[in-house]
UniProtKB/TrEMBL annotation:
Top-level taxon: Bacteria
Protein name (database record): DUF4013 domain-containing protein
Keywords: Membrane, Transmembrane, Transmembrane helix
Ranges that cross the membrane: 24-43, 55-73, 103-127, 155-173, 206-225, 232-258
Length: 278
């Protein structure tokens, strides 16, 4: 995949979803409603009900793993195997869905953790170049840290966020196509996926992943604005928007990875398996 292919694949995925909104609605189905209801309930819960909030958070995480798995399996198998049978009220709890959802969530969380150190290095370099200094003395108090943060320009934090996001998405973009094997009850072929997405250091698959995730921007903006202004209305609105865009983004990501797997990984894995059997 090169940059032109990344752009074309992303555009083709958008057109595929727009061409059949009925399928999009069927495939999102009941999991989208459940996840949206849990998100709204978690935001509107009573502040003094700590146990209830913890339970809602746990249920939200479990539902997120399940819904990620369901949507990814449905769209991947639709593209790879031509399966188009899921209905709106279907509630599948097969192990395949949990496995895919668990792999996706673990992959994103591990990538986020791994991006902290490189992002810290970039922040330090930026601070040095611009004449600012980051606090390195562990004895500094909260007041010193707050003063240091207020002295940094806004573009510094924006650049930092962008670096963290890119460093988090890069390994996800390169390992994600391996999901194409998992949805067909195969192994998570990390090595094959990493090798297949190695052109130009994996930048084209990263660009494609960013393009198909642009629908998340409005929800993220509302969420950050709501947190900054402590507005419950904006947080609820962000959750409503997210309940619409999340299934769409998951669908487009699954289609992108299934396409890469079907073209650059699957045929070679089949050839290797056939040779081993012989």
């Amino acid at each position: 995949m090169n940059f032109r292919d990344a752009w074309r694949e992303s555009l083709a995925i958008y057109l595929l979803l727009l061409s059949d909104p009925g399928r999009v609605l069927r495939f999102a189905g009941a999991p989208a409603l459940i996840l949206a209801a849990l998100g709204i309930a978690q935001m509107t819960r009573s502040q003094d009900d700590g146990s209830g909030g913890s339970l809602l958070l746990l249920l939200s995480v479990i539902c997120m793993i399940w819904s990620l798995g369901v949507w990814t399996v449905r769209w991947s198998r639709f593209l790879l195997l031509g399966e188009d049978g899921p209905q709106f009220w279907d509630m599948p709890f097969e192990g395949r869905n949990w496995r895919v959802g668990g792999i996706l969530l673990s992959m994103m969380m591990l990538s986020a953790v791994a991006s902290i150190l490189p992002a810290t290095v970039v922040m330090t370099l930026l601070a040095s170049v611009t004449g600012h200094r980051l606090a390195t003395n562990p004895s500094q108090g909260p007041a010193d840290a707050a003063a240091m943060a207020s002295a940094m320009p806004d573009w510094f934090f924006l650049t930092t966020y962008i670096v963290i996001i890119l460093m988090t998405l890069w390994p996800v973009a390169r390992l994600g196509p391996a999901i194409g094997s998992v949805v067909q009850d195969g192994k998570f072929v990390m090595g094959a996926s990493w090798k297949a997405t190695g052109h130009l250091g994996g930048l084209p698959p990263l660009l494609a992943l960013i393009l198909v995730n642009l629908l998340q921007v409005p929800a993220v903006f509302l969420w950050l604005t709501g947190l900054q202004s402590n507005s419950l209305v904006l947080l609820i609105l962000a959750n409503v928007v997210l309940s619409i865009t999340h299934p769409l983004v998951t669908a487009m990501t699954a289609l992108l990875w299934a396409r890469i797997y079907g073209v650059a990984i699957g045929p070679y894995q089949s050839a290797i398996t056939a040779r081993d059997e012989e």
